[in-house]
């Protein structure tokens, strides 16, 4: 079976033109004048503002998610399914597909209205009342032929012509002058009338703004979706909003409310050569929007079929089948045209517009919810190049829900019942496909983390396929002597993970030691818990350091996730502390823990000198964990002026290969590091790795170095010695190789 990623050739322009030509479409020419006539300028302005309070957060969410995940064919469906999982993605994707397919009918019906002078002429001259279908049915059949024969390339080329016609039409509209304009009294239009009809007109006009996502459906045909989708979508949305505001202002100073309300082609009464150019602009905009929809909708259902969303294997295979090198969705286009034809035969502009509004609200609300949950979940793998704000996404989601109920509460409830039943059915036939829990687990993790920290700060004493997060524990008896390790634990646990610090209290568990332990915890909280701290502190009572470690590594984390890392700490001038650490490394490794040894230089940390990560030939397992830790630590506000620099020591003949591997790791892992901050060093026979590290990183804020357990068994404390003049060092020994997503 062919995929949706065989060949991509378009840039940003088709995304923008598809969006703007769909935004400036049927509703602009047929209904916005009527909306101003019925509601007044401020009522129409309210429609534009409320509509964009939903579409702008959605555009930002799409731009954000598209720059975090590789977006393939299927556009919005691909984004939803790869975030919420295939089952719920298919559920919303089917609703999205039907809205796109019905949109084809909507724009063809609207295209037919451009022939209103012809229908009026037939009625007045021959007393023949022709049905609109004499134009709309041939139009959709011709459209189907063009798209099926020429594919997306022809459709995209047509957009440039359409945008030119739209530009001319709008220019002639804006330069037009009327008797009402010459009179100079526009006060009757600058009002907010018929407020009880606001949401009726909102439902009719909202499809005008949904065009901003039209270009997203071309994702499978773009050279660089992560670049083209944000730019094209945002520019289309902003330009469309500004044009609509100017249009309703022009209406308000050009025509009386009665003139606007009585004619769906009121623009023709304002524009220069309006009787010709406005029907021409309407025809061009609606047919371009229909082309955009008929390009996008089949790609959505094709993507659904590629993901085997339908219960029939044969149906999935048939719908997924493409044509030619670009994998044009030929069969999916046939189905889309058939659905659109049904609505063309039975539909009317206002009725179809309201149906489309409800479908799009569900999709837009879902996209905003995905963005919000990704922000709230703070997944380490969520690193979009384009960033919105969680509050904007939350507002978009809540407004989508609220507006749906305001438009029609009964239809909204019915829509969500159908969506729920469809999801349950898909979940039943595809039990093996999860995904919904993935995005919510991140949010639940954050909620649990914050609740636990809140409870502790208020002195409450009551008590392999998963994405990796640090869940670190540290046990030390030097809590009131060494403060630097608290900083390290806060850096590791900030935002992306969890950290637990245990003060080791030597002794046996008793009432006295328990009382002492609570006092110690209170003191630690007072000294080390600021509002931004994500570190949980406690006290471990045990007869020896080794038994304390054994207790800690067997205890569950209060974050709800398993502890996976232990941090040992020592001052560099305390040689005896290293021996205690060496005695217990094997114990922690028996529990499959990653082991970090923090060497405190007892100096001020120079954050602006950055974090240096050293990768050597022995660090096959350690490298990815070291890099992940470097960027997790860097995300803490303490390091806001810092940076990460990666050094790799290798044999001379491996320099080119090593550089290529690191560059690919940076690009595929979307790591925020410039290539100039990657340095490959050829190993020299007369110079040890320690010498190289000291030469390059003596002034670093933090140096991360890997080590192996075998080294500690063979060389003992020498592994951690020889770095006396350097700053703080974090030695890392990974239990297994981590994946940088």
UniProtKB/TrEMBL annotation:
InterPro entries (UniProt xref): AA-permease/SLC12A_dom, SLC12A_fam
Domain of life: Bacteria
A matching Pfam family: AA_permease
Chief subcellular location: membrane
Annotated organism of origin: Carboxylicivirga mesophila
Membrane topology: Multi-pass membrane protein
Gene3D superfamilies hit by this protein: Amino acid/polyamine transporter I
Alphabetically ordered keywords of this record: Membrane, Transmembrane, Transmembrane helix
TM helices/strands, residue ranges: 12-33, 39-63, 84-110, 130-148, 160-180, 200-220, 232-251, 271-296, 329-346, 352-376, 388-405, 411-429, 613-634
Protein known as: Amino acid permease
Subcellular localization(s) per the UniProt record: Membrane
Domain Amino acid permease/ SLC12A: 15-431
């Amino acid at each position: 079976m062919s995929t949706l990623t065989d060949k991509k050739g378009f840039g940003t322009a088709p995304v923008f033109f598809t969006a703007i030509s769909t935004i400036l479409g049927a509703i602009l020419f047929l209904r916005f004048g009527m909306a101003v006539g019925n509601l007044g300028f401020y009522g129409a302005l309210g429609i534009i503002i409320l509509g964009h309070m939903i579409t702008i957060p959605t555009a930002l969410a799409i731009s954000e998610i598209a720059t975090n995940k590789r977006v393939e064919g299927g556009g919005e469906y691909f984004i939803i399914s790869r975030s919420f999982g295939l089952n719920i993605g298919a559920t919303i994707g089917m609703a999205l597909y039907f809205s796109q397919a019905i949109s084809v009918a909507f724009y063809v019906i609207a295209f037919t209205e451009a022939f209103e002078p012809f229908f009026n002429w037939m009625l007045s001259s021959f007393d023949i009342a022709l049905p609109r279908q004499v134009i709309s049915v041939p139009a959709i059949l011709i459209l189907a032929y063009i798209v099926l024969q020429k594919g997306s390339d022809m459709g995209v080329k047509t957009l440039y012509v359409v945008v030119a016609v739209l530009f001319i039409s709008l220019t002639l509209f804006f330069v037009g002058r009327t008797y009402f304009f010459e009179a100079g009294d526009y006060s009757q239009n600058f009002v907010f009338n018929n407020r009880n009809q606001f949401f009726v007109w909102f439902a009719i006009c909202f499809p005008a703004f949904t065009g901003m996502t039209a270009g997203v459906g071309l994702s499978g045909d773009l050279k660089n979706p992560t670049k083209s989708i944000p730019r094209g979508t945002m520019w289309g949305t902003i330009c469309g909003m500004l044009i609509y505001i100017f249009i309703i202002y022009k209406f308000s100073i050009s025509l009386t409310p009665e003139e606007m309300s009585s004619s769906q082609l009121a623009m023709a009464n304002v524009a220069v050569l309006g009787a010709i150019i406005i029907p021409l602009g309407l025809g061009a905009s609606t047919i371009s929007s229909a082309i955009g929809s008929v390009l996008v909708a089949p790609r959505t259902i094709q993507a659904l079929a590629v993901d085997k969303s339908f219960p029939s294997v044969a149906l999935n295979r048939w719908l997924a089948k493409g044509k030619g090198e670009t994998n044009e969705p030929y069969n999916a286009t046939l189905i889309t045209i058939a659905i659109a034809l049904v609505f063309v035969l039975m539909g009317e502009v206002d009725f179809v517009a309201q149906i489309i509004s409800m479908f799009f609200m569900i999709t837009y609300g879902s996209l905003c919810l995905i963005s919000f949950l990704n922000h709230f979940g703070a997944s380490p793998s969520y690193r979009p190049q384009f960033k919105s704000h969680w509050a904007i996404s939350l507002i978009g989601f809540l407004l989508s829900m609220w507006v749906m109920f305001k438009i029609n509460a009964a239809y909204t409830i019915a829509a969500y019942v159908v969506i729920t039943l469809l999801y349950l059915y898909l979940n039943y036939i595809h039990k093996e496909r999860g995904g919904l829990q993935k995005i919510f687990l991140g949010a639940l993790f954050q909620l649990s983390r914050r609740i636990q920290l809140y409870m502790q700060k208020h002195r409450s004493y009551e008590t392999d396929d998963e994405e990796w997060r640090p869940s670190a524990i540290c046990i030390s008896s030097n809590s009131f002597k060494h403060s630097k390790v608290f900083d390290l634990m806060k850096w590791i646990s900030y935002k992306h993970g969890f950290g637990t610090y245990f003060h080791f209290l030597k002794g046996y568990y008793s009432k006295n030691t328990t009382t002492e332990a609570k006092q110690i915890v209170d003191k630690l909280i007072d000294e080390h818990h600021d509002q931004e701290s994500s570190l949980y502190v406690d006290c471990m009572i045990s007869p020896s350091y080794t038994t304390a470690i054994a207790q800690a590594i067997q205890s569950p984390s209060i974050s709800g996730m398993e502890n996976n890392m232990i941090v040992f700490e020592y001052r560099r001038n305390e040689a005896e502390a290293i021996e205690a650490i060496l005695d217990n490394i094997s114990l922690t490794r028996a529990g499959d823990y990653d082991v970090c040894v923090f060497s405190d230089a007892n100096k001020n940390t120079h954050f602006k000198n950055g974090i240096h990560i050293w990768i050597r030939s022995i660090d096959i397992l350690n490298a990815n964990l070291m890099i992940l830790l470097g960027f997790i630590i860097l995300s803490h506000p303490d390091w806001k002026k810092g940076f990460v620099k990666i050094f790799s020591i290798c044999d001379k003949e491996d320099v080119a290969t090593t550089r290529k591997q690191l560059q690919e790791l940076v690009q595929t892992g979307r790591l925020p590091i410039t290539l100039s901050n990657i340095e490959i060093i050829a190993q020299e026979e007369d110079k040890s790795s320690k010498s190289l590290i000291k030469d390059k990183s003596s002034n670093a804020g933090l140096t991360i170095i890997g080590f192996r357990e075998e080294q500690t068994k063979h060389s003992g404390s020498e592994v951690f010695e020889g770095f006396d003049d350097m700053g703080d060092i974090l030695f890392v020994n990974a239990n297994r190789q981590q994946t940088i997503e």
